Amino acid sequence: MPYRAWFQCISGCDEKYELNEIVYQCKKCGDLLEVKHDMDKLRRHSSEHWKKLFDERYRRTRWPYGSSVWGKKEWVCPNVANENVVSLYEGGSNLFWAERLGKELGIADLWIKQCGNAHTGSFKDLGMTVLVSMVKQMIAEGKNIPAVACASTGDTSAALASYCAAAGILAIVFLPKNKVSHAQLIQPIANGALTLSIDTDFDGCMKLVREICSKNNIYLANSMNSLRIEGQKTVSMEIVQQFDWEVPDVVIVPGGNLGNTAALGKGFLMMKELGLIRKLPRIVCAQAAKANPLYLSYLKDFKEFTPIKAQKTLANAIQIGDPVSYKKAINVLKTFNGIVEQATEDELANASAQADKTGLFCCPHTGVALAVLIKLLKKNMIRPDEKVVVISTAHGLKFTEFKICYHENKLEEVNSRFANLPVEVSPQYDAVKTTICRKLEQMSS
Amino acid sequence: MPYRAWFQCISGCDEKYELNEIVYQCKKCGDLLEVKHDMDKLRRHSSEHWKKLFDERYRRTRWPYGSSVWGKKEWVCPNVANENVVSLYEGGSNLFWAERLGKELGIADLWIKQCGNAHTGSFKDLGMTVLVSMVKQMIAEGKNIPAVACASTGDTSAALASYCAAAGILAIVFLPKNKVSHAQLIQPIANGALTLSIDTDFDGCMKLVREICSKNNIYLANSMNSLRIEGQKTVSMEIVQQFDWEVPDVVIVPGGNLGNTAALGKGFLMMKELGLIRKLPRIVCAQAAKANPLYLSYLKDFKEFTPIKAQKTLANAIQIGDPVSYKKAINVLKTFNGIVEQATEDELANASAQADKTGLFCCPHTGVALAVLIKLLKKNMIRPDEKVVVISTAHGLKFTEFKICYHENKLEEVNSRFANLPVEVSPQYDAVKTTICRKLEQMSS
């Protein structure tokens, strides 16, 4: 194969492993791994060559390059043969010009990258396609991998189950018994995953899934797995591509486990190193105030990082007190002149609802990112003339309960300033007309 | 403007209206209108020109042509100026190769066109972008149109509300009081639509919305509006484009109000007339057995058509006994050597679940289309070597309740043959391992 990538320990201890080895962290020092690429080989082509190639493939029909992840295959995971790629046509999501919302917030050049408009409804597809393809590749090479497993209640288990179902590989989801609601789990259930409801807590599940995987050659799709970062980093490339290879000034991303912050930075750095872009954007990591360990670290100039116990937040996918990828994220934020800001429940719910009124349908995590944008505009840390991209991580259709409760003003710690409810009217022309006229007057005043 | 389109009565009475006139049916005979294009002008370019142009624009960044609807603007609605287009990047949805499902069903070349992977989660976006853009155009031309209204509980109101929100135009949704559940309505509510809960039935709402619209210059976004068909017909073009301009043998589409069947046919016919394709596919309209007036008409060779009272079906978006577009759909089916087939509740729910197990996440309407495919394969009316496309109309995330009840085996008239539920396991390594081994044995047997 002309291009090559491998796992390498991020600590500098120089440990390396092949991508088709079942390994999740450094065997020597226990630190995180990252995927490294043979940059010398990639550099043999000019930046113009890569731009042209990526543009030619974008959304076209030649397998598997129409996927915006696999359209950058050489930069992502060259080690997988095309016939082993498990792709559901990732990426290519709308970069929504938030003209109306921007006007309300006083910023002209605001864009929402709608990563949730995806096969399983979240950005997790971007990483999962790489992980499951690598598993299929290993099976094709003769490795005996009977299943892929994870401990997750949310988007990760949904993406894992769907990609495994498409590939015909068993997915196993480990969950604490009392946290299993069928509604939350309907995606893995429908996609045929073996869903284990175990009489223990989340830590107990994590312990069991690790033990089961290590003793039975079952592949662990946890957030430590750095293959997923390789897929997720294509969001940076796609944003720049959608701006005709222009780099925005600021990118805001919600942060929980911090893999996405790390991925975003990795994508921009690789483009800069290979000459496709000349500048880097500022990266802003947006945390829920109820789960803000990185924000607390940022206040101390990242001199220390202390895990916390996350409290319950509406932004439940980022309700994480001890994030796996904090080291990678801090490195990125230092390099990108980064900012970390937090949003309260009230702020994230209202920001999400305000955006919905302009045609979006935001998940609460996107609400966190939008609330942080509003705060940074007020603090003059983002200027009104800057080009800003907000990463929207999941489809709002996964969060209808959150939205219903918001509009019924039933969310704790939230004053629903943009609530909208059906208006009861009697079935007479005049009554209806009066109601409509009143609404039109409100709008014009 | 170089290209031109207008409304024309389908009855042959030769009535014509401009697209910027507020008119929904023929003023002379009351029949449906359709959008007609100046085909002579379109024919001045070769088929190669059009293919190249559509391919060049597909998913690119030049406004508004990256949308797969507006990428075919000259064929869809040339009358709207680009600055008045209200687009959320429609189309470009995955044409999923259902390799595993096809193998199970005994057909090698099966494809699912995932129209539900869209901004508001259904194919309605394709038509609504045209309708709302035309309204914005009329407002820009100086017409006083204070709002756009519809009577709908489902995908239509969601799409209308979102596009109007993006454009800054008031959307009004008319609904019978007892049918208003906030969950069903959360999309229009979140997108700021004025949602009227009226103490009457659905017919009463239709009567009121018509009266309000006609007396107040409010635009009516009902299913009679043929602008929406122009957007929806781009699905045919996109499918062919995604097959590198090859025509599939069969296309299966769920049918309720039958606008989508009409649109599908219109797209293929226009491509044939302008030389982009040489053959037509067979079109199969798939109806729920609980709402099957077209199926009953088909059994009588379309010699008569009698509206029925539709019964409650899981496929609630096609629960329609008196479809608006039946004449257009029958014309299409006659031209395309068409078939109409029906699916019971048991068939549609099981077909949907079977597909989910191979990585999809189907809405019940897609289930109807898949169940019909299974029946027609059994009847040898579709051959195993034919290239078949199934149109998936909405995202499964809109139907989680349907899926939960299916897997709990709680749906009426349905025996859930593919049910999957969490398995309770005690928190010991051996217990978990035994459960996994049992599952793996099941799979290999």
From TrEMBL, chains A, B:
<dbReference type="InterPro" id="IPR036052">
    <property type="entry name" value="TrpB-like_PALP_sf"/>
</dbReference>
<dbReference type="InterPro" id="IPR001926">
    <property type="entry name" value="TrpB-like_PALP"/>
</dbReference>
<dbReference type="Pfam" id="PF00291">
    <property type="entry name" value="PALP"/>
</dbReference>
<dbReference type="GO" id="GO:0004795">
    <property type="term" value="F:threonine synthase activity"/>
</dbReference>
<feature type="modified residue" description="N6-(pyridoxal phosphate)lysine">
    <location>
        <position position="124"/>
    </location>
</feature>
<dbReference type="GO" id="GO:0009088">
    <property type="term" value="P:threonine biosynthetic process"/>
</dbReference>
<protein>
    <recommendedName>
        <fullName>Threonine synthase</fullName>
        <ecNumber>4.2.3.1</ecNumber>
    </recommendedName>
</protein>
<feature type="domain" description="Tryptophan synthase beta chain-like PALP">
    <location>
        <begin position="86"/>
        <end position="393"/>
    </location>
</feature>
<keyword id="KW-0663">Pyridoxal phosphate</keyword>
<dbReference type="InterPro" id="IPR050214">
    <property type="entry name" value="Cys_Synth/Cystath_Beta-Synth"/>
</dbReference>
<comment type="similarity">
    <text>Belongs to the threonine synthase family.</text>
</comment>
<dbReference type="InterPro" id="IPR004450">
    <property type="entry name" value="Thr_synthase-like"/>
</dbReference>
